[in-house]
Amino acid sequence: MPRNEPYKTYRDLPELAGLCRMTQAVKSDWSLDESVTRLKRIHYVLRRLHETFIARIPGEPIYELKTLYSHHAYLCAEQVTAIRSRVSEMREPPLGLDKVPDALLEGTLDELSRCPETVQFLSGVYSVVLPACLAACERLRVDAHPIADAPTVRIAKLMAYELTELCDTGTQCVACLSSDEDQPNISDWEDHLTAYLKSSGSIDGTAPCTESPPELRYPDVQKAYQHEPQRDDRFRDPYNAGVNPEAFLYDDQYAASDKTLMIYYKRLREIDVPEVMATILTDLGGAEPWEFHKEMSRQLWDEARHAMMGEIGFAALNLDWTEIPINFTWSKNLNTQLNPRERHGVLFFIEQGLMPKTGKRYEWEVASESGDPLAKLFQDFDWADEVLHAQIGRRWYVPRYNSLNEAMAYGDKCWSQVLSNWQQYKDEGLTEHRNWWPDLYSKFCRLKGVIPDPNTLAFQDTYEQKRADLENL
Q1: What are phi and psi of 31, to 5 degrees?
Q2: Mean pLDDT, range 51-55, rounded to an integer
Q3: CATH number of the domain bearing residue 263
Q4: What is the pLDDT of residues 403-435, one digit of tens each?
Q5: What is residue 222's predicted lDDT score, i.e. its pLDDT?
Q6: Cβ contacts of residue 198 below 8 Å, gap of 6+?
Q7: CATH assignment at residue 46
Q8: DSSP line for 392-453
Q9: Whether 50 and 177 share a structural domain
Q10: Which residues span the domain enclosing 60?
Q11: Domain shared by 288 and 171, yes or no
């Protein structure tokens, strides 16, 4: 190609598979080492954000933030996995992906993880750290050689796309939860984290490093993590175990159209599963490989989605879910009475119990028979998700035991050890275990314009003597 003349392709077809112009491709100011170094730093930040999102789920009282953290932790996990795969293509083991790439970058993420205040945490993540991570991905997309390093360019594009959505949603949360009086503190906190990032040369290390980082704001505060789940004030009477939805659902005397209402309740109540899974992942930490955390994060996000399916179901029926008790004692009792291996055992035991005909297939059949197309749709995907979760359990839980039967027996044993505290919660005045079903069912029928079935209206089975799998306590 003569100098200063445009490169010619056959009949002016796009050059180089449309990835770039030849004028860009002939440049050689890039290296494999630079690509790996930047990816490792982005990887570290996203992995720490994943851990931090997960750790905050149980102690975050606001339902919408529990689901937000569940989703964003999952997306971070997917991006971390993409980076790990790419680095492994460019380097032979050991890859060094579990090492801290920069002490000052670590300090930034430590500060964020220890932040005790919700709005400050949100502003730090979505106005400082994630936008800096997005900018690092954009720089990587532009700087990396578009042909030699095309796989890196691709994942940088994909990460930037998802990170843009994360930042947009997160900044909306900050706007919704903050007031004008909060702005000085928020701005001060964002300036603090920004200064810390600058001291490390930014996320990808491409910026000049400042001489020294600012003084730590939370040097001795433990990470914002607690085992006991918290719920916001819309969760009325959360200790109430006065209705056993499984007993209603599996009783043939009740109509499928009425069972759908109870299915939506069961889905919404599944917000307690991310609360339990978050403690399993956080407590086990480095005792399990990244692949374990990645797959379990997908399952955690699925369970949060299931809760949102229940929320949507109530909205579709014009029912206010905050008017009924959404019990949280399953996650509370597991998180405070069992260690992480025992909690995982209970989770696996329940998942496997959902696989036979009496499990998720049965719920789908009920939803199909009910005439509610939304319920049928949700149960179709809920069933598919639980098949995946059972497979995840068989990959990561069962190999610790001599057989599947032994693994199941251990999970059953662990669940049997959990004290329901049904009477204790009542004696302490935390709940009366009120039977809320007649009121909900009556309103459900009124909105549908039908007369309540007297037998269905009279349902009153509780959790006093039975678990969710209908086994006696």
Answers
A1: -145, 160
A2: 97
A3: 1.20.910
A4: 999 999 999 999 999 999 999 999 999 999 999
A5: 66
A6: 207, 209, 210
A7: 1.20.1260.10
A8: HHHHHTGGGSSSHHHHHHHHHHHHHH----HHHHHHTTS------HHHHHHHHHHHHT-PPP
A9: yes
A10: 27-199
A11: no
- Give the count of domains, the chain: 2
Q: How far apart are the first and last CA of the chain?
A: 82
Segment 382-408, tens digit of pLDDT: 999 999 999 999 999 999 999 999 999
The full DSSP string for 270-282 is TTHHHHHHHHHHH
Cβ(56)–Cβ(69) under 8 Å?
Answer: yes
Q: Are residues 54 and 186 in the same domain?
A: yes
- Say yes or no: 257 and 171 in one domain: no
Task: Assign 3-class secondary structure to 77-128.
Answer: HHHHHHHHHHHHHHCCCCCCCCCCCCHHHHHHHHHHHHCCCHHHHHHHHHHH
Altogether, the residues listed in the chain come to a count of 473
Same domain for 151 and 276: no
Prediction pTM value:
0.96
- pLDDT given at position 221: 72
Residue with tokens 């990959």: 395
- Residue 241 — φ and ψ, nearest 5°? -125, 40
Return the SS3 of 14. coil
Phi and psi, residue 363, nearest 5°: -60, -40
pLDDT surpassing 60 at residue 1: no
Same domain, 421 and 350: yes
Residues 138 and 250 in one domain: no
Whether 366 contacts 263, CB under 8 Å: yes
The span from the CA of 222 to the CA of 220, in Å, is 6
Q: Are 9 and 20 in contact (CB under 8 A)?
A: no
Residue 220 pLDDT > 90? no
